[in-house]
């Protein structure tokens, strides 16, 4: 490998500075004493304290977490089923429509998805609340899950499943004992993606939530519309912190499981050779 | 039988919660606004049987679409969305390509870490990433403080609430979508090709334009579509960073629905936006298919 040229070094340094400086500033200024967000007036954690006192934010956070948990879990089940159907079932009635409906939500503008779902809920007389939020988030999240899981299923060695069937497993047992453990990393990252997308969503939630089910992004949006606020900086810092810890933990776990899998495979190859 | 269940459940879910809602949007875009709940007419009355359906169909018309063409706000908003999406896609390419290139040339053991650093912001809240620029770009923001302190400007620049802030916000939030496909193309570029080009007398720069760039083109095209398509319907960035003069169709649809409560016009705006989006989406799919075939 060539030594890194000056140009490449500069491109990476400037690029990562651009990506990370805004968030670093946000974190630093969340510890600012002053209410004027852009003027530094000494270190303080008071905005975290006032955030913890803010019942509206706490309520919204609780709604958001519940919606994210339920929608990502249902979306993972539905998305995995959809991926399985797309990769394994070959031709079936409506396959083109089905795969179109899986990919369309990925490119659909949120304003259209939100509007469409709201009009559906109104025309069937479903009151807006947690339930409509979960239905809406599940619908777009299952498509992301299905894309993640189907890319893993495509590289899956079918002979493993056939071997399980030959050894007397039923189809369900073969799935549970052989397929699921192998695609588990993809299923888990699909769930995480669905969970994050649900936590993050402002536009679709604005259309499909009711007055009693305000989510955190809706709360943040209506408050930052009026300008920068130190409380939001504190909230952002907490959210950035959670993501950083989560991603770090996930990458450590996946590295370890990769090492383990490689060791297992090497052992299997050795056993075969012997 | 069990096989059928595996696809029937997600299939039905998507039919009911994805396809049917769009048909409803289309239907309401042909309706008229009314002071009622729900605020549009006609309502489908199935108790009347066939004549009820016929009456219902007779009252649908393209009035709202004609209205969209007569009020200049709408076509200006569509044009301005296309312009903003095109400009910011180009700017994202300018920022993203050098980064993808540098990552592909970085030491092999650094690459996973660099890749993770690109993806990491994607996991943090989109809203917060957009919000972080509000404090930077304001007239009393950190950027203006820095520029004033350095003596580069004497009066604060007005950046926030202009289209420039929107461009910066889009480049910032969509950068990973540009970098990743380009990187994946450059990563598997055979270094021997470049050496051959240089042996045959190419300068470094012309080797780049004659070999590297053409080979990375599928990634560039994919990246551009991945930025252009979602930007076209973007709502959060123009409403937080843009000004009152920033016209984007996502914002217009939002206001039509939430402020004016004109559901039929909001639905018509959505239908037209979908029609505009179909072209780049089909082109994108063609590009992906071509790439998949080239790899197979």
Give a short overview.
The complex is a heterodimer of chains A (274) and B (296). Chain A contains 11 helices and no strands.
Describe the protein's topology.
The complex is a heterodimer of chains A (274) and B (296).
Chain A: H1 6-29, H2 46-53, H3 55-88, H4 95-107, H5 110-123, H6 130-154, H7 158-166, H8 171-200, H9 203-208, H10 216-224, H11 230-273
Helix pairs in contact in A: 1-11, 2-11, 3-6, 3-8, 4-6, 6-8, 7-8
Chain B: H1 2-29, E1 32-33, E2 40-41, H2 50-59, H3 63-70, H4 72-105, H5 111-123, H6 126-137, H7 142-150, H8 163-187, H9 191-199, H10 204-232, H11 236-240, H12 249-258, H13 263-295
Antiparallel strand pairs in B: 1-2
Helix pairs in contact in B: 1-13, 3-13, 4-8, 4-10, 5-8, 6-8, 8-10, 9-10, 10-13, 12-13
| CATH superfamily (homologous) name of chain B | MetI-like
Low-confidence sequence ranges of chain B: none
Give the overall pLDDT of chain A as a whole number: 88
Rg of chain B, Å, rounded: 25 Å
Mean pLDDT of chain B: 87
How do the helices and strands follow one another from N- to C-terminus of chain A? HHHHHHHHHHH
Helical percent range of chain A?
over 70%
End-to-end separation of chain A in angstroms reads 37 Å
The CATH superfamily of the domain at 53-233 in chain A appears as MetI-like
CATH class categorisation of the domain at 53-233 in chain A: Mainly Alpha
Name the structural class of chain B: mainly alpha
According to CATH, what is the class of chain B?
Mainly Alpha
Q: How are the strands ordered across the major sheet of chain B?
A: 1-2
Tell me the distance between the termini of chain B.
Answer: 33 Å
Biggest beta sheet attributes of chain B: 2 strands, antiparallel
CATH-defined architecture of chain B: Orthogonal Bundle
Beta-strand percentage range of chain B: under 5%
């Amino acid at each position: 490998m060539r030594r890194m040229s000056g140009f490449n070094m500069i491109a990476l340094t400037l690029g990562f500075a651009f990506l990370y400086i805004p968030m670093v500033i946000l974190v630093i200024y969340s510890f600012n004493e002053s209410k004027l967000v852009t003027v530094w007036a000494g270190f303080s954690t008071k905005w975290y304290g006032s955030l913890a006192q803010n019942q509206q934010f706490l309520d919204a956070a609780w709604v958001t977490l519940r919606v994210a948990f339920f929608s990502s879990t249902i979306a993972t089940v539905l998305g995995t089923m959809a991926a399985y159907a797309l990769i394994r079932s070959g031709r079936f009635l409506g396959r083109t429509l089905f795969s179109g409906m899986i990919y369309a939500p990925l490119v659909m503008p949120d304003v259209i998805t939100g509007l469409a779902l709201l009009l559906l809920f109104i025309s069937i007389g479903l009151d807006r609340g947690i339930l409509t939020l979960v239905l809406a988030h599940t619908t777009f999240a299952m498509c992301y899950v299905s894309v993640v899981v189907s890319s893993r299923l495509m590289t899956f060695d079918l002979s493993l499943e056939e071997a399980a069937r030959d050894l007397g497993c039923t189809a369900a047992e073969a799935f549970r004992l052989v397929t699921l453990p192998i695609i588990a990393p993809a299923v888990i990252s699909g769930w995480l993606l669905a969970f994050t997308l649900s936590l993050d969503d402002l536009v679709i939630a604005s259309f499909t939530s009711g007055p009693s089910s305000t989510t955190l992004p809706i709360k943040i949006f209506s408050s930052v519309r009026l300008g920068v606020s130190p409380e939001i900086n504190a909230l952002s810092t907490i959210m950035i912190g959670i993501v950083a810890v989560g991603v770090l933990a996930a990458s450590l776990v996946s590295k370890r499981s990769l090492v383990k899998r490689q060791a297992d495979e090497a052992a299997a190859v050795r056993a075969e050779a012997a | 039988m069990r096989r059928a269940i595996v696809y029937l459940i997600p299939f039905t879910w998507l039919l009911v919660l994805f396809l049917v809602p769009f048909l409803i949007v289309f239907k309401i875009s042909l309706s008229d606004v009314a002071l009622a709940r729900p605020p549009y007419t006609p309502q489908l009355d199935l108790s009347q049987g066939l004549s009820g359906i016929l009456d219902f169909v007779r009252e649908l018309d393209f009035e709202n679409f004609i209205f969209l063409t007569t009020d200049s706000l709408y076509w200006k908003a569509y044009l301005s969305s296309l312009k903003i999406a095109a400009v910011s896609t180009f700017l994202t390419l300018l920022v993203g390509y050098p980064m993808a290139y540098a990552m592909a040339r970085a030491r092999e053991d650094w690459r996973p870490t660099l890749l993770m650093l690109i993806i990491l912001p994607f996991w943090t809240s989109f809203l917060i990433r957009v919000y972080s620029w509000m404090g930077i770009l304001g007239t009393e923001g950190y950027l203006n403080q820095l520029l004033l302190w350095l003596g580069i400007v004497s009066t604060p620049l007005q950046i926030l609430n202009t289209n420039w802030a929107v461009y910066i916000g889009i480049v910032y939030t969509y950068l990973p979508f540009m970098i990743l496909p380009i990187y994946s193309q450059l990563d598997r570029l055979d270094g021997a090709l470049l050496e051959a080009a240089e042996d045959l007398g190419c300068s470094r720069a012309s080797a780049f334009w004659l070999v590297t760039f053409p080979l990375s083109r599928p990634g560039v095209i994919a990246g551009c579509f991945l930025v252009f398509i979602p930007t076209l319907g973007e709502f959060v960035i123009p409403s937080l960073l843009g000004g009152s003069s920033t016209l984007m169709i996502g914002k217009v649809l939002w206001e039509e629905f939430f402020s004016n409560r004109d559901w039929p016009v909001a639905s018509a705006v959505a239908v037209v936006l979908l029609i505009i989006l179909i072209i780049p989406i089909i082109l994108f799919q063609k590009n992906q298919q071509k790439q998949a075939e080239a790899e197979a």
